[in-house]
Design a protein that fits this description.
Elements (H helix, E strand, L loop, with lengths): L18 H35 L1 H16 L4 E5 L2 H14 L11 E3 L4 H10 L7 H7 L5 E6 L5 H12 L3 E7 L3 H4 L4 E5 L4 H23 L14
Parallel strand pairs: 1-2, 1-3, 3-4, 4-5
Helix pairs in contact: 1-8, 2-8, 3-8, 5-6
């Protein structure tokens, strides 16, 4: 079999070969170190805050999710930007595995079908990209989990409004500025921060806790292991 020509590696200018550039990088790193410490300290402070305020609400959301999935319901998730990534992350943890090797669970992110998203945005409006999917998929007794740092995203708000009018339980993960709106949802987990990256980091911590608790409730005595076809 003919082999492909070996790709020639062209390395960028080496810091070793360019002492002046290496010195600039070292000086920049030294200048950034205090900023790095401040950022990390602030992120940890937010995580400590949610540990002190949200444990009961995490447990409530996890118990609701476990009950929904146990009785044949489904979880739908949505958000925009980084929050879309969080929504997809949670759906993946449940459809695949978190800690345990077990059957897949009914969880779907409404952010992943690019044809649906672009068609709905083009033919109707971007505010309807989630709600129109819910209209076709969700049933009473299902759960909608939304991620929004501000609580102001029109497409998330419209999805929640539809869900609440159609027997779908709503769980909102928001930042401080979204606290008032989140109170209109069935369950709200509020990160006491106005800094978007810290809010998103806290959101995935909260969502991971919900996934871990719901999985353990649904599969008591389950064991972690190599992914594959599990048994309940």
């Amino acid at each position: 079999m003919e082999q492909s020509p070996q790709r020639r590696s062209v390395a960028p200018a080496s810091l070793v070969a360019d002492p002046a550039r290496a010195a600039v990088v070292a000086a920049t790193a030294a200048r950034m170190e205090s900023g790095a410490a401040r950022f990390l300290d602030a992120a940890v402070a937010v995580q400590r805050a949610i540990a002190g305020t949200e444990a009961a609400r995490v447990a409530q959301a996890a118990a609701l999710l476990a009950d929904t999935l146990r009785h044949g319901g489904a979880l739908y998730t949505c958000g925009n930007g980084g929050s879309a990534a969080d929504a997809q992350h949670v759906a993946a943890e449940l459809a695949g595995k978190f800690f345990l090797v077990r059957p897949g669970l009914a969880a779907l992110a409404l952010t992943t079908n690019s044809s649906a998203l672009t068609a709905i945005a083009n033919d109707f409006s971007f505010a309807e990209v989630f709600v129109r999917q819910l209209e076709g998929l969700a049933r009473p007794g299902d759960v909608l989990m939304v991620f929004t740092t501000s609580g102001r995203s029109p497409n998330v708000r419209l999805a929640v409004e539809w869900a609440r009018g159609h027997g779908v339980t709503t769980v909102a993960l928001v930042g401080e500025s979204g606290r008032e709106w989140a109170a209109t949802c069935d369950h709200a987990l509020v990160v006491p921060s106005d800094v978007t990256p810290h809010i998103q980091q806290a959101h995935i911590t909260l969502a991971h806790a919900i996934c871990a608790l719901a999985e353990a409730e649904l599969f008591p005595g389950g064991a972690a292991g190599t992914p594959g076809r599990g048994t309940p």
